[in-house]
């Protein structure tokens, strides 16, 4: 059963200068999250942070396109200073087809990396977060975190957790040959030509930028002669 219950966490304590992680906040029974950071800014003016979720193994949150029953992640950086744009670097999700509904999810302990463009070395993140957390019920959990971007002593454990999550983020294709051929609508279905020796068709997720159009799991068919 899915019930719209709101869990709202109190504002996090302001993390001390030099800390590359915030305190944990409990956002639902048995579920906590915090913000972690590498504490470093690259020569190109980018830093990596991440939302770290400590969830039981039977509890999930959602990918960029949450699916039919999921709740999307919402990040509000308007109170931050010294930053420009941001990108969520989504690890590859689990495709879950349950009770006739299709969702894209992460179960258990989850790290969601973010790349932040930094415009001032004294930048400070102040972000309000809303995301869906589901076990027997689904909760739009809320929290707010504040964290300085730069750390005189970069946080190596946090950086390691972030880079481990980055290893699960799909990469742009840089191999020889083209794994994807023609893409066209066939009635109400999306037909994608795939080179089977280059790409596992079952790993494909078709999604629009807005996520408004939800495509089901891929079905492998032979192209007509």
UniProtKB/TrEMBL annotation:
<dbReference type="InterPro" id="IPR028250">
    <property type="entry name" value="DsbDN"/>
</dbReference>
<dbReference type="Pfam" id="PF11412">
    <property type="entry name" value="DsbD_N"/>
</dbReference>
<protein>
    <recommendedName>
        <fullName>Thiol:disulfide interchange protein DsbD N-terminal domain-containing protein</fullName>
    </recommendedName>
</protein>
<keyword id="KW-0732">Signal</keyword>
<feature type="signal peptide">
    <location>
        <begin position="1"/>
        <end position="19"/>
    </location>
</feature>
<feature type="domain" description="Thiol:disulfide interchange protein DsbD N-terminal">
    <location>
        <begin position="43"/>
        <end position="146"/>
    </location>
</feature>
